[in-house]
Every structure is written in C-alpha cells, then in structure tokens.
Amino acid sequence: MVLTYLLLTILALGAIWLKASIRVINQYERGVVFRFGRVQPAIRGPGIALLVPIADRLQKVSMQIITMPVPAQDGITRDNVTVRVDAVVYFRVIDPRRVAVDVQDYVSAIGQVAQTSLRSIIGKSELDDLLSNREGLNQGLELMIDSPAQDWGVHIDRVEIKDVVLPESMKRSMSRQAEAERERRSRVITADGELQASAKLARAAETMAEHPAALQLRLLQTVVEVASEKNSTLVLPFPVELLRFLERATPRDADQPAGDAVHTPEPAPSTSNGRPAPFTPHIIDVDDAEHAAPVGGRPVQ
Question: Nearest 5°: phi and psi at 251?
Fold first, then answer.
C-alpha cells in the first residue's frame, strides 16, 4: 500500500516536472530563456524546448509581421494648411533577445514613435507634397521610425499614409483652382489651333493667288460636299476672282465703234406717297454726254 502511494507520488512529481520543463514553441515564434533572471545567449527555435524547473523562465516572441494602424494626427503643414493624416506601419522582430530585454512593450513603443514621426513629417511638408508625393513621404516616415526601432531589435518593413483629410474651404479653393487651370489650358489650345489654321489658310490663299483655277476647283468641291447631304436648298457663292478670271479669259471686241450708245439707268425718284416712281431707261450718246440735259434733276457724268 505504501509502495502504491510512493509510485503515485513519483508519477505526480514527474508530471509536474515535465509540465514545468517542457515548452512547445510554434513555427512563427522564438523563445528567450531567462535562468535565474539572466538571459541566455541561445535562442530557442520552434519545437519542444526543455527547461530547468524553477530556474528557467521562457518568454515567447512572435516573428510575424505586425500591422499597426497609426491614429489620425492633426497638424499644420509648412504652407499653413490644417490637415488630418493617418497611416499604417508594418514591422517585424529581427532580434528576439533585444526585444525581450531592451524594451518593455515594443508594440506600444513603435506606435508612439509612429505618431510623433507622422506629426513631424506633416510639419515639414507642404500640402502639395501630401497629396501628390506620397511615395517620398512614406520613405521619409519609414526612416524616421526605423532609426530608433533598430536599437530595439525591430525592423520597419513599410509605412503608408492612408488618407489626408482637408477642410471644406480648402477643398472648394482647390476645385476652383483646378477649374481655372483647365480653362487656361483650353484657351491656350484654342489659340494655338487658330494660329495653325491661320498659317494654313495664308498658304492656301497664296496658292490660289498663283493659280486662279484652284479657287474654281475648291468651289466645285464645296458644291459636291453640300449636295451630298441631300439638301433642298443650295446657296452657291459667286466669287469676284472668278469673274476676273473669266474677264481676262474673254477677248475684247476691237471693232466696237466708240460712238455706240450707252444705256445709263437712273435711280427711280420717290413719289409723294413714298413709293418709287416707274423707272424709264434713257439712251444717251457718248459723244453728246457733255451737252445732254440733266435726267431726274442730276447732271450726267
């Protein structure tokens, strides 16, 4: 009976000893052993770790990448604009021994450094940099956080600025500025197009002046383009240059006598009731133009 109690006691003590001396470390963790308060140089890897009961104490440190959102920080940029910026930090442990010994709570420490660094980067930057140069600001913020974190055995993998909140008045000012910039670009493009069109038209006018037949061909082309639209009305302009071309192409009649009669129509005088009087053409000989009587009260020129 005593032997049975003794065996049960030994088994109980063995179970307690195994429970106190055996630890299981996961794949993503590392173990730091403290023996009587002193840290051991060997870092325990994943698997079963044997400890000395009562003397050793194991502290597990996660080696996974930790994602920590940085609370939104209010700040004033270098060009005196009030903004609200938040970010996110990705970091991981690279030295479990220093994390366990040198810093009490490395996650909280990284969070405080990230907040102060974010406020500092807001004060050093302008509003345009916060809106357009995010990549450069992210790199600068990463360097500011990683500098003290390396002394704690932590590496900053990445820092990203998530959002920049602007006041409503600033949003309206920026929208007006963008609208004015678009209007300026449209006016410049329109003026440039008119300049190029005027240069092309000047060259075309020079070509038509050298070759008068080109104007007639252009006129016929315009008629064809208008006629293809199946319009019921066709307005055909008759250029003066075409008349001059036909006048130069038509030979003059050299046998025409100098004393032929010239028909000189006079404008119809108005009657008392405001209606024009009936028009009667007068035939005046060119040789007797100087002795002709006035027609309608006017001398014949």
Answer: -75, 145
